[in-house]
Specification:
Lasso peptide biosynthesis B2 protein, McjB-like, 5 helices, 50% helix, McjB_C, alpha+beta
Length: 130
């Protein structure tokens, strides 16, 4: 992993580090705050002036870092929403499969899923964060 990191450009390293720190912070805050307080913290932490970051690069690094650090779909989706904010919707859905209740989070833009695709599952959306 470090070998790949040192092989990318300076701007990509900065992007990867920003994603890593933001996703880790989101993961930590999800663990210690009740969700109602998390939403307040998250909303207040959104950047006022955003640097433009290539959307495909964001998605690639969020998926890569998230999978390597074993982050679930929710921290990954919240991280993408953080960087793209008003351009996207974060959706949380549920399903019951084989007597097991499951939840899933994904981000979509104009009905296209950007992160959190689950091709074999059919989650019923219960909450959307615009």
């Amino acid at each position: 992993m470090l070998k790949k990191f040192f092989g990318i450009s300076y701007n990509e390293k900065v992007t990867a580090i920003r994603i890593l720190t933001r996703m880790s912070l989101i993961f930590f805050m999800l663990k210690i705050l009740r969700f109602e307080y998390f939403k307040k913290w998250y909303s207040h932490s959104l950047p006022k002036n955003k640097k433009a970051i290539d959307q495909n690069l964001l998605i690639k690094y969020i998926k890569s870092i998230g999978s390597r650090l074993n982050f679930t779909c929710l921290p990954q989706a919240l991280t993408l929403k953080y960087f793209l904010n008003s351009q996207t919707e974060l959706i949380i859905g549920v399903q019951k499969q084989n007597e097991k209740f499951e939840a899933h989070a994904w981000v979509q833009q104009e009905n296209e899923i950007l992160i959190g695709e689950s091709p074999n599952d059919h989650f019923t959306p219960i909450w959307t964060w615009k």
